Amino acid sequence: MKLKGCLLLVSCAALFSQSTTVLAEETYKLRLAETWPTGMPLLDSTVQTFADDVEKMSNGRLTIRVDSANKHKAPLGVFDLVKSGQYDMGHTASYYYKGKVPNTLYFTTMPFGMTAMEQHAWYYYGGGKELMDKVYQPHNLLTFPGGNTGVQMGGWFREEIKSVDDLQNLKMRIPGFAGEVLARVGATPVNIPPAELYTSLERNTIDALEWVGPSLDLRMGFHKIAPYYYTGWHEPGSENMFLFNEEKFNSLPEDLQTILVSAMKNASFNMYIEATSMSTVNWASMLQDFPDIQVRSFPPEVLKALKKANDELLEEHAANDPLAKEIIESQRDFASKARAYTLISDYGYLETTKDL
Amino acid sequence: MKLKGCLLLVSCAALFSQSTTVLAEETYKLRLAETWPTGMPLLDSTVQTFADDVEKMSNGRLTIRVDSANKHKAPLGVFDLVKSGQYDMGHTASYYYKGKVPNTLYFTTMPFGMTAMEQHAWYYYGGGKELMDKVYQPHNLLTFPGGNTGVQMGGWFREEIKSVDDLQNLKMRIPGFAGEVLARVGATPVNIPPAELYTSLERNTIDALEWVGPSLDLRMGFHKIAPYYYTGWHEPGSENMFLFNEEKFNSLPEDLQTILVSAMKNASFNMYIEATSMSTVNWASMLQDFPDIQVRSFPPEVLKALKKANDELLEEHAANDPLAKEIIESQRDFASKARAYTLISDYGYLETTKDL
């Protein structure tokens, strides 16, 4: 027998001088599938902390079993696992599913797009959430921001990139939309499983790769073989997401829904803080232990070519799909206003104080 | 009779086929004093949302009565109101209390200090929280981050500042430590109640003032009379705080404590996002409606003089107080590492893409 909200209500008033309500409380269990392997820093740990928070806040009424990719074996199948109800929740990134649902592309990060805080402002106050709902609701999925890495670095290169010519036939591990952009300017984007990245770079199977940033790059060791570390252009604020089976979420009592939403938002915030902290500490280690690392930015000519390719691809997407057009225009409009403010605030502060 | 955790535990097992615990639940009421007036955008609204969240998450077991400064009449007395137990909680900013407890100065924002995310990383992962606890625990107060404004602007000036000479005897509304810094280079900092700021500037009682940034400056109207708007140096990431009477917090059940901590962290995150959004929208309005606004940065000569004065003042503080020394050194060490990362991530991205 499924007990849905025990109806037994007993007033303590007869026993105590203060009126107190006694509620029989059902306990709930949710299963969460995450894209990440067990123990992955920053990502798995964010999800584990989220599950602990929910259990504590609900005083044990709601527990969440977290299954890593080691268990469910479908790291990039979390969308389907949650849609079908095999799992109640997921933790993944939206752009992994662009092959299945093209408009999921826009809700992680975009090349030359918004930084984490600009994107958060767009999502919560600029219409972003409503557009993301339009993409996911036909699949009976609810989404919630799941944690930001901050600006991702442009990657590790064995040779310096001085012009667009240097990109011709350059074999680079860079997945997703950014790979399409690079292909359009003449590079050869490839995707390689994380476990094979170091060896591929070492054996010259690839010439370059991007991963995340100092937060997660240090342990990968790429700096030992590809000393040119480029500043970012392709993932200026990658936000992961929580997925929820809509029917399952709606079946929960309202207080547990609110607890879940609060805990997910905290997880999102905390991951961004933890990523910043890890990058700070790891970058200091890398600078100290590997003084040969060369930080570079792509020359303006290269960035202009990438931006042009990026804008052309977006135009094509917008021409093919009215919802894509709506999303692209909403992002472009908000981003231009947000960037105008960022340039007089964060950028202005950093620019004028960096050489004092 | 005070009912402290109703002890009546009844198992539903006898009634239903599923084991369910019945807990008699006490309800709790907390009183919160905020520094802000009723209806103040961004600040009062952050606290109201926090109180609503707590009530929903606790299913009504915990309610928070928010008293604005209009009610308790002590906007800058929240520290004492919570320490004495007249209120259980507060929402205010740490640096308002530097006259009473000098080391509270360091936990809002510091001139030439960390940005919001750098400071969050320091607070949560770099020892900041432990140092803040050292300052507040002797007063039986717990503190929690309470929301960031982002980089505050350097203020509105009627005349352009071209050199340190232009600062001599300049009457500027700028409170706190930044005022001390300005005084040391020859300006005359004054403090004026918010309601009198516009008139003071209009009637030449002051030559310049700083308030927050586009988020809250637009409604004040300063741009109509002082067109030079300077980028920030003195408050690169102002974080408000929640204060809690320690005994009161510890008397609450653990699940409600966790709910409170989660809701406070959400409030902190959300205020930063809302401030970014408000600044984005308001700055776009100001640019459109007041094309005469002139954005400027202080010349390097001026910033160097301010930085030198700032460092001298910090040296004096550190020499006078071992805990101040510990805090200043912890911030300086973490900030230098965090900034090295910020410069290759956020700054690198903004710098290389701003002219594409």
Short structural description:
Chains A, B: One of its GO terms (molecular function) is metal ion binding. Chains A, B: One of its GO terms (biological process) is transmembrane transport. Chain A is α/β, with parallel strands linked by helices and 356 residues long.
What is the level 1 CATH name of one domain in chain A? Alpha Beta
Order of helices and strands of chain A: EEEHEHHEHHEEEHEHEHEEHHEHHH
**What is the assembly state of the chains in this entry?**
homodimer
Biggest beta sheet summary of chain A: 6 strands, mixed
Which pair of chains forms the biggest interface, and how many residues does each contribute?
A: A-B, 94 and 94 residues
In total, how many beta strands of chain A? Answer: 13
CATH topology name of one domain in chain A, in short, is D-Maltodextrin-Binding Protein, domain 2
| Arrangement of strands in the largest sheet of chain A | 9-8-10-7-11-13
Number of helices of chain A: 13
Low-confidence stretches of chain A: 1-22
CATH architecture designation of one domain in chain A: 3-Layer(aba) Sandwich
CATH superfamily of one domain in chain A: Bacterial extracellular solute-binding protein, family 7
Distance between the termini of chain A: 70 Å
**Beta fraction of the residues of chain A?**
15-25%
Q: Please, what is the average pLDDT of chain A?
A: 93
Strand pairing plus helix content of chain A: what structural class? Answer: alpha/beta
